Amino acid sequence: MNTPKRVIALGFFDGVHKGHGALLRRVTERAAELNAVPAAFTFDVHPESLILGRATPLLSTIEDRTDLMRRLYGIEDVVVAHYDREMMKTPWEDFITHTLIRDCSAVHVVAGHDFRFGYRGEGNPQRLREKCEQLGIGCDIIHPVIQEGITVSSTYIRTLIAQGEMARAQTFLGHPHTLTGVVHHGKKLGRALGFPTINLTLPEGLIVPALGVYATRVWVDGHDYMAVTNIGRRPTVDDGDALSVEAFLLDFDGDLYDRSVRLEFFKFLRPERKFADLDALRAAVMQNAQQTRTFFQFAQL
User: pLDDT band for position 1 (50/70/90)?
Assistant: First the structure.
């Protein structure tokens, strides 16, 4: 069985930001020219976590990275390779000849200006371009995307998300910060207070946004709903250390347990705080609901 020929973007694509978008758009252009499949090659584990021995807090899961690349940029095939010590020790030439050409049927590759690969990062854009030319396949190297004098990067966007600067992060991502998860059962306290919430788990390894309340949208089966979302430890009712993600969907009445939903963050409304009682908590949530409605009424999305 023949593997279809692919034009492949190379990178980790954490967050799938505007810099990544420049690569992915070039891939779809080249794929159309070559009658090939627009694809991306990425890893399940961030290489730095193995190379440096410390975990890098990520902007997105592999599922969200894949969805963003497909949904926003028309990438049809995402190859997810396992990054382990064997992959880390792969000579850079073998990564091109074996992994990309033999295993992935690459006829053209696209990489960023700072892309490094192979053992000890010995592969670089110049070597990639020269080796591809030698092997008779195409290669594009994409210049950095600069915005407000800042190079668009996952590292910079992580600092914004950690500070709750969702609106600014969106300008560098090119889309809202996203979290997809399966709704699970909570304590149902919100329902008793008049604002039923859905409960999600922040996947291990993902960056924790600034604790507090956000104006968000929740997507379910292609439909979106305005929502007030709290990320925090619920000090008014719990006084514990467990981190929770709770979204109160406005204008929605239904059961979403065990359903997959996509949560998009737009605006930080207030820090999390402990209220004197549940009535004060309810009043604050209702105020946040009105702020959310107002935001989406006037937002240029």
Answer: very low
Question: Under a CB-based contact definition with an 8 Å cutoff, are residues 215 and 267 in contact?
Answer: yes
* Burial track 17-29 (b if 16+ CB lie within 10 A, e otherwise): bbbbbbbbbbbbe
- Cβ neighbours of residue 157 closer than 8 Å, sequence gap 6 or more: 15, 17, 59, 169, 172, 173
Domains of the chain: 6-151 (3.40.50.620), 176-298 (2.40.30.30)
Report the relative pairing of strands 138-142 and 106-112 from DSSP bridges.
parallel
To 5 degrees, how large is the angle CA 136–CA 70–CA 106?
A: 15
Interatomic CA distance for residues 267 and 295, integer angstroms: 8
The length of the chain in residues reads 301
- For the segment 85-95, the average pLDDT, to the nearest whole number, is 93
pLDDT tens figures, 255-276? 899 999 999 999 999 998 888 7
pLDDT digits (tens, 9 = 90+) for 126-163: 999 999 999 999 999 999 999 999 999 999 999 999 99
CA gyration radius, the chain: 22
Q: What's the pTM? A: 0.90
Rounded to an integer, what distance in angstroms lies between the CA atom of residue 88 and that of residue 120? 8
The whole-angstrom distance between residue 206's C-alpha and the CA centroid of its chain comes to 9
Q: Which two tokens stand for residue 175?
A: 């889309």
